[in-house]
């Protein structure tokens, strides 16, 4: 959440329009030798959205790792028929702790460092990027445009989230669309299952054309399915993270289909050793500059801030906010412009939670939380024949800095969040200094090394073995072989 030295940009309907309206003029299955060009309009719209997407997803990783991803991305992108010129594509490694990848018309392709860390060879990286390019080549965004009621990354995501929680046509859906802005880290665009399958197939085709083993599409989907399952277990919540919380829904159901598409006798390069050499040292998980989630706890060393989510809830960190999710309600920690008037700040936040700007509490209550000036209000409103409570709880962090929780619960059920509101505190310099980034390290297996021994080297105290297995695409029955290279996560 929040870089301490940059201000994130909320994508407006016009700036995000490229994700829905821009169209590719070339066929998805164009032959490798066909010369196609990306239209000037696509390039212009992509260039306009690119810097805003970088801010939305934590910025671009630079250095040798990013250069490597760029090289692989351009190699696979030119297989799509969109263009034969590598220079027509911009491939970016994003500084985001969420497993995600996407592409927009104009030749812009993105993948997060977290998703790259989950991969185990270059062919898997090429497959994921090929899948995303396939969405653009098949003009999936344009085809989905008519189904989108708002041309905004945040708006569309908010409707999906609010609809899943409260009902798609509920009055609270408009509020949910504003509260769940963190979701743009989770979902850029909701494609249909048919479109996902088509993109998988195109990714397999592009892999084969580029000389990669096309079975890599299946193995990376398998790793993503395993990671999704582990994430649900690690959340400690009975509120299972649903399909709509993933950019690519239900990867497990697509593993066999991708393998079938590749063919039983498929072959090609994997470039595993090259891949592992290049990705070593990637930041893994949350970047301390954006705050760190540790179970139900969140700590931001830059802002000297910490709080804890309620029991049974899980946290998802984004570059602009932190989402809080559980069966009893949903919420978000974020910030807004502040000029020293906390009462006015709370009312401003409420107003922005409604498209009509008419959401307002009857009164604002002032208080202090661990020595921090605070204020809160609550509004009860109707939703699909029932009632819900919307709570805004704000903190004056400095003369020109405030933070606030926005929470939606069924009426009368906001009490579980009380402990979270009261847990907000300032942390000491020593506590802030103790927050360290985790990094990906590639090590060589020695004689006598075991799965359990490798897992013990992971920078985690919970489910270390499961984390190690998923990270390396292994199972509990796998055997390590001397000389084999594997990934671990260390401080």
Using brief descriptors, characterize the structure shown.
single chain, 491 residues, alpha+beta, Protein Transport Mog1p, Chain A, Membrane-bound Lytic Murein Transglycosylase D, Chain A, seven-stranded antiparallel beta sheet, four-stranded antiparallel beta sheet, 17 helices, globular
> Helix share of residues?
25-40%
End-to-end Cα distance = 20 Å
Radius of gyration (CA) equals 23 Å
Proportion of residues in extended strands: 15-25%
Major sheet: size, sense and barrel closure?
7 strands, antiparallel
- Low-pLDDT ranges: 4-27, 146-178, 180-189, 238-247
**What kind of assembly state do the chains in view correspond to?**
single chain
Describe what is shown at a glance.
Keywords: Hydrolase, Metal-binding, Metalloprotease, Protease, Signal, Zinc. This protein is of the alpha+beta class and 491 residues long. The protein has 17 helices and 17 strands.
Question: Describe it for me?
Answer:
With 491 residues, the protein is α+β, with helices and mostly antiparallel strands. The chain is built from 17 helices and 17 strands. The protein has a 7-stranded antiparallel beta sheet. The protein has a 4-stranded antiparallel beta sheet with strand order 5-6-7-15. Strands 1-3-2 form a 3-stranded mixed beta sheet, with helices on both faces. A hairpin with a 4-residue loop joins strand 8 and strand 9 (322-326). It is globular.
């Amino acid at each position: 959440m929040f870089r301490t030295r940059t201000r994130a940009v909320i994508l407006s309907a016009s700036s995000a329009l490229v994700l829905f309206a821009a169209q590719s003029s070339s066929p998805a299955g164009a032959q490798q030798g066909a010369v196609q060009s990306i239209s000037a309009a696509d390039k212009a719209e992509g260039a306009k959205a690119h810097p805003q997407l970088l801010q939305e997803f934590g910025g671009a990783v630079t250095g040798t790792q990013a250069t490597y991803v760029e090289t692989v991305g351009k190699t696979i992108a030119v297989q799509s028929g969109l263009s034969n010129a590598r220079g027509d594509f911009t491939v970016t490694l994003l500084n985001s702790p969420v497993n995600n990848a996407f592409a927009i018309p104009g030749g812009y392709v993105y993948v997060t460092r977290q998703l790259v860390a989950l991969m185990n060879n270059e062919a898997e990286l090429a497959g994921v990027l090929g899948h995303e390019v396939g969405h653009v080549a098949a003009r999936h965004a344009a085809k989905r445009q008519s189904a989108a009621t708002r041309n905004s990354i945040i708006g569309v995501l908010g409707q999906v989230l609010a609809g899943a929680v409260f009902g798609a046509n509920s009055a609270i859906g408009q509020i949910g669309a504003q509260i769940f802005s963190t979701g743009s880290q989770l979902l850029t665009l909701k494609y249909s299952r048919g479109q996902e399958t088509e993109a998988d197939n195109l990714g397999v085709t592009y892999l084969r054309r580029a000389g990669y083993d096309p079975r890599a599409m299946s193995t990376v989907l398998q790793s993503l399915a395993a990671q999704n399952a582990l994430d649900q277990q690690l959340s400690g919540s009975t509120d299972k993270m649903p399909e709509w919380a993933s950019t690519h829904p239900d990867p497990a159901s697509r593993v066999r289909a991708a393998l079938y598409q590749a063919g039983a006798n498929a072959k090609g390069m994997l470039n595993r050793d090259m891949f592992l050499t290049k990705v070593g040292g990637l930041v893994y998980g949350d970047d301390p500059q954006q705050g760190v989630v540790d179970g139900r706890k969140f700590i931001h060393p830059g802002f000297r801030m910490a709080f804890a989510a309620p029991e049974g809830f899980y946290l998802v960190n984004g570059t602009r906010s932190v989402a809080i999710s559980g069966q009893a309600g949903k919420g978000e920690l974020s910030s807004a412009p502040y000029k020293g008037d906390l009462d006015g700040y709370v009312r401003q936040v409420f107003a922005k939670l409604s498209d009509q700007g008419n959401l307002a509490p009857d009164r604002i209550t002032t208080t202090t939380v661990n020595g921090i000036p605070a204020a809160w209000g609550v509004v009860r409103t109707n939703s699909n024949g029932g009632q819900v409570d919307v709570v805004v709880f704000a903190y004056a962090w400095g003369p020109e800095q405030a933070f606030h929780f926005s929470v939606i619960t069924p009426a009368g059920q906001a009490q579980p969040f009380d402990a979270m509101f009261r847990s907000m505190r300032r942390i000491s310099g020593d506590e802030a200094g103790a927050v360290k980034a985790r990094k990906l390290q590639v090590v060589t297996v020695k004689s006598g090394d075991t799965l359990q021994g490798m897992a013990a080297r992971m920078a985690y105290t919970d489910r270390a073995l499961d984390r190690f297995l998923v990270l390396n695409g292994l199972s509990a029955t796998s055997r390590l072989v001397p000389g084999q290279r594997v990934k671990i996560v260390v401080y």
